[in-house]
Specification:
Blueprint: H1 3-17, H2 21-34, H3 38-50, H4 54-64, H5 69-81, H6 86-91, H7 95-98, H8 104-116, H9 149-176
């Protein structure tokens, strides 16, 4: 590992010690998207775990081969979030850890992903912490007919408008035709 990786890990630890966990997360996440730095990704897994993001911690710890009860439960959360969709799991690993040489566990994941999605490597795009799906679905929900928050709010506002219009119409009608 290069000296740069040690500097990033040391800087991230300083952020953590100072209570700026989110800065450590961002620093480490940017770093592992371009560098195959096992120490940085392992620490990133700990940061994610500490922030309560078990699926991302699981992906990080799976890539680094971290073992233990915390890692095992985080990997289980990662698998559950992805719905055991191996292509989603493959894409959630930082690109440098998907490149060769790959440890057997990552190669096995790649093979399973390719068996379900043969053109996986042509459509491969790494997911950053900001773009990774948080519920195991693709980020193309709009294209697949899924609802987003804006659509739900639009339907609620529309329903309220209709209710208010009906109430207003009944009130005006009551003014015009008094009950007698």
């Amino acid at each position: 590992m290069s000296g740069l990786g040690h500097d990033v890990v040391a800087e991230a630890r300083e952020h953590i010690d100072a209570g700026r966990t989110w800065q450590a997360r961002d620093l480490l996440a940017r770093h592992v998207e371009s560098e195959r730095d096992t120490d940085a990704l392992t620490l990133l897994g700990h940061v994610y775990h500490g922030m309560g993001d078990l699926p991302r911690a699981g992906a990080a710890w799976f890539a680094t081969g971290t073992r233990g009860p915390e890692a095992d439960s985080a990997v289980a959360a990662w698998r559950e979030q992805a719905g055991d969709d191996f292509a989603v799991m493959w894409r959630s690993l930082p690109e440098p850890f998907r490149s060769e040489p790959r440890p057997p566990r990552i190669e096995a994941l790649r093979e399973r992903a390719l068996s379900r999605e043969p053109d996986l490597e042509r459509s491969d795009s790494p997911l950053t912490p900001d773009s990774a799906p948080s519920d195991g679905t693709s980020s193309d929900d709009e294209d697949s007919g899924g609802l987003d928050g804006a659509q739900v709010i639009g339907w609620i506002v529309g329903a309220l408008f209709v209710v208010c219009a009906v109430i207003g119409f009944v009130t005006v009608l009551d003014w015009i035709v008094p009950n007698g």
